[in-house]
Amino acid sequence: MYIINNAIDGKPITSSSSKMAKIFNPATGEQIGSLPLSSDNEIEKAIQNAKKAQPAWGDMPPAKRSRIMFKFLQLLNENIDDLAREISREHGKTHEDALGECARGIEVGEYACGIAQMLKGEYSRNVGPAIDTISTRQPLGVVAGITPFNFPAMVPMWMYPMAIAAGNAFVLKPSERNPSAAMFCWELFQQAGLPNGIFNIVHGDKSAVDYLLDSPDIKAISFVGSTPIAEYVYQRGTKAGKRVQALGGAKNHMIILPDADIEGAATALMGAAFGSAGERCMAISVAVPVGKETADKLVALLKPKVAALKIGTASDEAAEMGPLITKAHQEKVIDYINQGEKAGADLLVDGRDFSLQGYEGGYFVGGTLFDNVTSDMSIYKDEIFGPVLSVVRKNSFDEAVDLIHGHEYANGTAIFTRDGDAARSFADKIEVGMVGINVPIPVPVAYHSFGGWKRSSFGDHGIYGPEAVHFYTRLKTITQRWPSGVKEGAKFTFPS
Ligand code: NAD
């Protein structure tokens, strides 16, 4: 049994909070640790240390900041197996999946190493007589990140490498379900030579989030989590005068046109729907085959595959997915399956009774497949965030597109087809933030930016990539006259 520390001013600090939360092993259901729900004083201490440390860091030449980032990446790569194990122990995902998460986080750090190039400003000579204008981007100061359980290393890395490389100090509040991966990365960043106070971690729940949202010393908030909380964070944070990006939940559809490679589409759907037990914001949870023949073929291919899913613990190399994150979440997913059955959807593969021998207390749910789901059912409308795939049959491309447009979420989507015309029109017109053409999970690489539309994202900036440079800096435009001796009489008209 371990107790998680906060990380403030370059040191692990044992919290003096009397409130603790439990950390469970999702594969066994046993408590393995606990973490503090930090007091306001502790969070304030982290913010004030960050505020003190930031100016010198922001003034450091960006290339020097990058050198520390390079060292951090080297340490991450050297310790990637251990980091993946930290993730799996508290999250439950397979080792391979955890390694994939680490790799995608590291990519953001690699992109952040080029920050000197990205911070280059613009210069115009002679905008007036001997007058030049310079536009430059400066760090905001202290910024904060609030992250979900499903990618405990990667999602924080969507945020702090770019924020810190841009010259800010960062305060992270990770998910209380699995805080160890973030702490592991923090330790490596310190070893890489990051000055004290530039990266801080405070643990907590709603009360810690509220403190960060209200603090006048936090200039920007990056949030990733469920839509109701994202909306709340956006509203409260912007009301307090901050810049906020708040990424929320999803219900991602994949359209399968009659001309698609249906076998390929079915295989892609398996990974996209059931990888990480469906606990991914870019998971495909709705398959939309167009035409009866396409639907029948797709369902016939999917049914045995879903029934044969290999479910196990992170140490089982053959496992394709692991348990869900908590007992409450397992119960919620099972309740959705009950609702789908009651609403009249065809339950072709039922994961409710799955139990793993030797791990009967684990939060497992088996792969579940519904056919003939309709858009009024809760299993269609809500984000289930579990290993449940719904097939919604449609008769035409236009009907399939209308279905997607009718949903409140618009994070990712995909189309499988050999018809370039349909694919191009889909990519062009669909009102969704991230689109895959014969690519089931179109998560942008680190040098593009990630972000959904509609109720999947609140705020004006995508996360990581070029959008992060804008989010974590503010524009300053300097107009200067040299030599200074140019004589002019007083002017009362607007300068032109
Ligand atoms: P969550 O919204 O429950 O928690 C996210 C963070 O918010 C955590 O740090 C948590 O402590 C905090 N929080 C929880 N309740 C709060 C409250 N009432 N007030 C203030 N803060 C609160 O999300 P989760 O269950 O950890 O993660 C799963 C969700 O995250 C899913 O909806 C998933 O789609 C979403 N997600 C979205 C993306 C994306 O990029 N759009 C990526 C990953 C996960």
Provide a brief overview of the structure.
This protein is α/β, with parallel strands linked by helices. It has helices spanning 40-59, 62-78, 80-91, 95-112, 115-118, 154-165, 180-191, 206-214, 227-239, 262-274, 292-307, 327-343, 378-381, 397-406, 420-429, 465-471; strands at residues 2-3, 6-8, 11-13, 20-25, 30-36, 122-128, 131-139, 142-146, 169-173, 199-201, 218-224, 243-247, 252-256, 284-289, 346-349, 368-371, 388-391, 409-410, 412-416, 434-437, 453-454, 457-458, 473-481.
N-C termini distance: 69 Å
Q: Total strand count, please?
A: 23
Taking all Cα atoms into account, the compactness measure Rg is: 25 Å
Provide the list of bound ligands, each named once. Answer: nicotinamide-adenine-dinucleotide
Provide the residue-averaged pLDDT.
97
**Major β-sheet profile:** 7 strands, mixed
Report on this model:
This protein folds into 2 domains: 2-248 and 456-478, Aldehyde Dehydrogenase, Chain A, domain 1; 252-437, Aldehyde Dehydrogenase, Chain A, domain 2 (3-Layer(aba) Sandwich), CATH 3.40.309. Helix 13 (378-381) links the parallel strand 16 and strand 17. By secondary structure, it is an alpha/beta fold. It is globular and about 85 Å long. The protein contains 16 helices and 23 strands. The structure holds nicotinamide-adenine-dinucleotide (NAD).
Write the layout of secondary structure elements.
Elements: E1 2-3, E2 6-8, E3 11-13, E4 20-25, E5 30-36, H1 40-59, H2 62-78, H3 80-91, H4 95-112, H5 115-118, E6 122-128, E7 131-139, E8 142-146, H6 154-165, E9 169-173, H7 180-191, E10 199-201, H8 206-214, E11 218-224, H9 227-239, E12 243-247, E13 252-256, H10 262-274, E14 284-289, H11 292-307, H12 327-343, E15 346-349, E16 368-371, H13 378-381, E17 388-391, H14 397-406, E18 409-410, E19 412-416, H15 420-429, E20 434-437, E21 453-454, E22 457-458, H16 465-471, E23 473-481
Parallel strand pairs: 1-5, 8-9, 8-11, 9-10, 11-12, 13-14, 13-19, 14-17, 16-17, 19-20
Antiparallel strand pairs: 2-3, 4-5, 6-7, 7-23, 12-22, 15-16, 18-21
The chain binds nicotinamide-adenine-dinucleotide (NAD).
